[in-house]
Design brief:
about 90 residues; elongated
Amino acid sequence: MVRNRARKTSIGTTSAEVMEAAARAVVSREKSLHEAALEYAVRKTTLFRYVAKVKTSSDPTSVSFRPHYEVRRIFSDSEERMLLDYLLTDQN
C-alpha cells in the first residue's frame, strides 16, 4: 500500500492570492498576459480564464479565484460519511 502518494500534476497548487494578483495586473494593463503568467508562475490558459471572469463580471471584487472542484465529485458529503461508516465497521 502506498503511504505517500507523489503528485503527478501541479493542478490546483496556485494560491488564490497569487492568481488574483496576476489577474489584476493584466486587467489594469500593468503587464501582458504572457508577462504576468511568467512572473507569477501560473499557466497562461488558467490566467486567461480568470482575467475574462474579472472583465465580464458586473462586480469585479466578488470574483472567486479559487478552483471549483465540486463539479468533479463522485459522492456527496452524506454518501461519503455513509461509506466511511460502512468501511470502518468491523466486518468479521
